[in-house]
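User: Quick sanity check before I run a bigger batch. Here is a single chain. Can you write out its predicted 3D structure?
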Amino acid sequence: MKNKSSRRMGISRRWWVIASLAFVCAVACYVFFFSRHSLRKWICDVSYPVGYDIHGIDISHYQGDIDWKELRQHGTIDECPIRFVMIKATEGADKVDEKFKRNFHLAREHGFTRGAYHFFSTQSPAAAQARLFISTVKLERGDLPPVLDVEKKPKNQTREQFRQSLLTWLHTVEKHYGVKPILYTYYKFKMEYLNDSVFNQYPYWIAHYYVERVEYPGEWKFWQHTDEGRLPGINGDVDFNVYNGSYYDLQQLTLK
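Assistant: Done. Predicted structure follows.
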């Protein structure tokens, strides 16, 4: 009886170990396939970049109705006041962000240095996209230069056709406002398509998350370092950015 009982206990113990391992594997698979983003954030500890004092955010209709008074009075990043707000204005050749007019007006009213950006579409001619931005955004003295947000290359365009399309937008907008637009894109995209003397002449706003420092070796003005920031006055996540310089430098970049 003792031997049989021991064998049964041994079998039960093995099954318990197997079941435990299976559970651990199931949890690991869930985390890998469904929660990689949150896990990465937790592991990397989305902290504030060291050595930067000028902080800002970028917003669109996804942030809903912002309580600008609350944001002005209590919104800080790394114990520093928010200095600038980049606001989505347009997308493609026919989409105006539904919150742009309100956000653009209230950002200035509450003392933020404001900027407006266009999300480049792979489905519309660049010239038409530039015309929409120009007709929508009335920049004033003290505003940041216009921003082109580009994140995808059209599949039906060659590399050179794509680059010429971007230059069409940039040149058209620069001619209208009299200032070079800011070019926003993420690190890998910049390195693959836009890292040369032609595009390096534009002020660069880099999106690069969960890294301690920007790996891009060239010059840059803004760094979007997380898309999961939280602030009073804004429901849900918001992108956090830093400016690579002093507040005086930031003001020198604005329209005169």
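DSSP finds eight helices and ten strands in the chain.

User: Great, the batch can go ahead then.
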